[in-house]
Amino acid sequence: MNTTVDIRELNEMIERQSAFITNLQTGMNQVIVGQKHLVESLLIGLLADGHVLLEGLPGLAKTLAIKTLSELIDADFSRIQFTPDLLPADVVGTMVYSQKNEEFKVKRGPVFANFVLADEINRAPAKVQSALLEAMQERQVTIGKETFKMPQPFLVLATQNPIEQEGTYPLPEAQVDRFMLKVVITYPDISEEKKIIRQNITGEKIEVKPVLKPEEIMEARKIVRQVYIDEKIEQYIADIVFATRFPDKYGMLQLKDMILFGASPRASINLALAARAYAFIKRRGYVVPEDVRAVAHDVLRHRIGLSYEAEAMNMNADEIVSTILNSVEVP
Q: What is the pLDDT of residue 5?
């Protein structure tokens, strides 16, 4: 009985506290046409304190969406254009010798911002991509002998063009696993395309005004952590992740030879956190199985290793996740 009362109170509190979501979505929709899933994914990353990797062909508003979000939140924004000749020091900063003081001083790199856009991250070699690792995971950067904390909130939003394109370096597994979500962006439909044309040929620039402060995001994150996850939902999340590792134990023998390696424990954590954030966006104080299903593809698609058999059959990670979601028992 107490749980019911608690959930009712939680629902009312979240109803009040999540009002800013509407303002953010309205602001994003003024600039971005369509791409509802992209906008939702960025909000999940923001609320669940998780980094987001966006994959899609050029011109699908990936960079614009990230820039617009940082403008709506009165926060520091920096953009790093990844290129083959980029160096780790260009990302995190370096020691610079001051002749006047006859000593080395730390010059901080562009990674020191609330929102860091790593544009076309797969255009740079692994040593540069890994320069982001410490910042993403530990929320700190070491330059010389000094360690600097990242500002709060701190979010890395990376974009990449699909790997098939020339001149790209696939991201190392350890790097990819540190992204909470990998969001695949597709083309707009024809009505949205016409709206994009109309919006861009007028020549008018839409002015984006901040609707939120970084401190308010930090407060919202505390409330997101209070969203109730039932034990049955926890079991459901664990079953989904375990099914990526041992599909045969869940009656999916056809997937056994398709999966080289399953999702890591980070997948379970991120599935729970993302489901909570999704419930918050939907103004609910508790997680339902649909929330888990809604974020499962984005959380799992980059954490499943495909075997040669899967590649030979043109099977991708999304199809494997869909099969798992259709097979694992829903509480």
A: 45
Q: What is the CATH number of the domain that holds 317?
A: 1.10.8.80
Global model pTM greater than 0.85: yes
Q: Single out the residue in 163, 183, 199 at which a domain terminates.
A: 199
The amino acid at residue 303 is R
Q: Are residues 154 and 289 in the same domain?
A: no
> Whose CA is closest to 267, among 231, 305, 308, 219?
305
The confidence score (pLDDT) of residue 70 equals: 84
Instruction: Domain of residue 117: give its range.
Output: 19-199
Best CA proximity match to 256, nearest among 307, 291, 296, 220: 307
**Closest alpha carbon to 172 in 115, 221, 133:** 133
Distance of CA 160 to the CA centre of its chain: 13
HSE-CB of 257 using CA atoms within 13 angstroms: 6
113-126 tens-digit pLDDT: 989 998 888 888 88
Total Cβ atoms within 10 A of residue 202: 8
Q: Is 171 exposed, middle or buried (0-12, 13-18, 19+ CB in 10 A)?
A: buried
Residues 134 and 277 in one domain: no
Return the closest-CA partner of residue 329 out of 275, 278, 292, 284: 292
- Cα–Cα distance measured from residue 284 to residue 268, given in angstroms and rounded to the nearest whole number: 21
